[in-house]
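User: I'm putting together a small comparison set for a docking exercise, and I want a reference complex before I start. The sequence is below, and the ligand is iron/sulfur cluster. Could you produce the 3D structure with the ligand included, as structure tokens?
Assistant: Of course. I'll restate your input first, then give the structure tokens for the complex.
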Amino acid sequence: MGLTLAEKIIKNHLVTGEMVKGTDIGIRIDQTLTQDATGTMAYLEFEAMGIDRVRTERSVAYIDHNTLQTGFENADDHRFIQTVCKKHGIWFSRPGNGICHQVHLERFGIPGKTLIGSDSHTPTGGGIGMLAIGAGGLDVAVAMGGGEYYITMPKIVNVELQGELQENVSAKDIILEVLRIMSVKGGVGKIIEYTGEGIKTLSVPQRATITNMGAELGATTSIFPSDENTLEFLKAQDRADAYTELKADDDAVYDEHIVINLSELAPLAACPHSPDAVKSVEELAGMKVDQVCIGSCTNSSYADLMKVAHILKGKTVADGVSLAIAPGSKQVLNMLAQNGALSDLIDAGARILESACGPCIGMGQSPNSKGVSLRTFNRNFLGRSGTKDAEIYLVSPEVAAVSALTGVMTDPREYADGYKVDMPEHFLINDNMVIEPASVDEMDKVEVLRGPNIKEFPKTSAMVQDISASCSLKVDDNITTDHIMPAGAKILPLRSNIPAISEHCFTVCDTKFPTRAKALGSSIIVGGSNYGQGSSREHAALAPLYLGVKAVLVKSFARIHRANLINAGILPLEFADENDYNNIDLGDNLYIENIRDQIAAGNGITIINKTKNVEINTKCALTERQKDIILAGGLLNYTMMK
Ligand code: MIC
Ligand code: SF4
């Protein structure tokens, strides 16, 4: 029986377990990446493990999220990351060099290698044929120290692309169509593998748009084969030696099969407040628009921005619209500057932002009250833009650009004029903003510089035997990590300070949660299905941990968040019978006895709701390793005990 491409890469990296779907496997990690909003914590964890030097083939730290410096905090964090990287063997991409996923694809991604990153959009690397997975900071720290990375062996879904996109329909519309079909929880426990004649028409950056936003499916990762288009991209990046041809065997067996005919696809938009609330642009046409933002790790490549520049050239942004553009990398921005396209953008009235995440993570450019904002980004969760009552629509660069001109949602096919951006034969290459680590001989001389906002990783203790706790919060389905631990320009600078950031935990849902949880001492959160979807931020586990949350009991979890809870030593429980969701209310007194024995026995955990006098059976499907992590009080304790 033949293997799929993902299975081939897993097989080559398998250290623990067997490739049996649904069972736990440990894989060797070749490369890691971090960004600054998760990076400080990841490097504090790495330091706590006491390992001198990274043991990966390549580890890179990027500064791209917390780039608004309205106080000392972010600048201090950048300096900490820069010095810690220099000392321990990690390459450092300076602020201004671009968004981690875009730069990694351009300069470091290698087909067939494994990559984990402390950012949920790490699967962007699947566009170049890597097995690239988003993870919590602690998992990345362990991988930097040479430890394997554990996942549940996923099912493999084949998305077969046929035909060719019409002009002004783009890669973004392909992934929006996949989201429409599969939903934000349809990819949990799965890898999405793209095949078919249609992929030949897609360049590496277009493929990367698709694998990037595959994160919104909840998928473990997404991947494209490595073929002549991959070689063309690598050659143009002066990295042809990184190329290997990679594809699935002809007789590979997939668990699911989806066919999309690109020729029939129309421009799409994800409506507020979920990436799978997809409608056609035709249906939404004419809706008044207040803001347009172009950029993010999904859609900020050279080709994307050349297309935008072409649409805007010689025109002016509509009166009522504010247009912001953040190019994905210094390479992209500089190429636009050199060929004059930047001037077309400026001339049309675009507000040019630095090459960073910017508005995507609420670092500035929050829309006006009740504003309608079209964004080429990947997430439109409630409040993420910084304006809670704003309406965010996720669209392609083509839809964004034409709508910026007309002031209303517009189908870009009406503006088709035959223009096509060719892949440059040579990208502009200058890695002067990437700092090499110190040599082994020099590393001891490097002093790691810490600012006062950098507080220690919260200490945890081994799991106790009995837990008496109250329900401190009850939430619905599809809770995102942006609900649990909001981001934005005001809160992100506290990412290195768990006591301070925990004051904002869940405040999008309930402003009193942090005070209540602290007053209760020990508590349990109750939620619906797909709890914790979205980002990889381990702060969504560390802040509840700091506030005394001992267990999270839900209908189902998103993958990375569940792993982060286990890493933090918080019990992830699922209702054995979903109807029991109705048997717990806010404030109920809950009791779990002999918990260590129940975890070890592995038959689920019984919670007694003393307020309602009912017993609730929960599933607690932990592998032997995960049981040991939970019993030790988290992955850091477990790793240090080993
Ligand atoms: C995001 O897009 O939500 C982020 C910000 O990049 C996060 C990481 C973070 O919260 O720091 C992610 O996707 O993992
Ligand atoms: Fe940055 Fe947005 Fe991409 Fe997250 S999704 S890495 S915030 S650009």
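The chain has 22 helices and 27 strands. The longest strand covers residues 155-162.
User: Thanks, that's exactly what I needed.
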